[in-house]
Specification:
Blueprint lengths: L2 E4 L13 E7 L9 E6 L1 H12 L4 E7 L6 H21 L33 H17 L2
Parallel strand pairs: 1-4
Antiparallel strand pairs: 2-3, 2-4
């Protein structure tokens, strides 16, 4: 079983409307092959596709928004924002060496709640994806 990594978004986050890409790569750091980047997709389709691909394979899938930057200045602005946010987060965690991301709750019995807001349970069909491509293209060309 592989791993899926994506952003946690608020229900009203503007990133939901962006096109999304999936980067598939090795889960085992000893494997050495070039990642495969697929998309663009609408977010629910990207999440569903990634879930299905990593379900029975030792792969990592990173699902992230594709920023429709149309100028060097927009790209630099996004890079600057990401760098500032990372610096602010690092400053807040001065004791990072002592932190752990381990979830100490017992999930063996799966008694915990599952958030099921990660898109459709089925893999989208080629027709659904092609329709989404058209919607994404329309959004990109309309400047949305």
């Amino acid at each position: 079983m592989g791993a899926l990594v994506t952003m946690e978004l608020a229900a009203d986050a503007p990133q939901h409307d962006l096109p999304w890409i999936i980067t598939f790569g090795p889960l085992d750091e000893d494997e050495d092959w070039e990642p495969v980047v697929c998309g663009p997709y609408e977010r629910p389709h990207a999440l569903a596709l990634a879930q299905h691909v990593v379900a029975d394979a030792d792969l990592m899938a990173v699902v992230e928004p594709l920023l429709p930057a149309t100028s060097v200045d927009q790209i630099k602005e996004q890079i600057g924002t990401a760098q500032r946010e990372a610096a602010e987060e690092a400053a807040l965690e001065s004791d990072d060496a002592l932190d752990t991301d381990y979830d100490w709750e017992d999930h063996e019995g799966h008694d915990h709640d599952h958030d099921d807001d990660h898109g459709p349970a089925h893999a989208p069909s080629a027709e659904e994806i092609k329709a989404a491509f058209a919607r994404i293209s329309a959004r990109l060309t309309q400047g949305v």
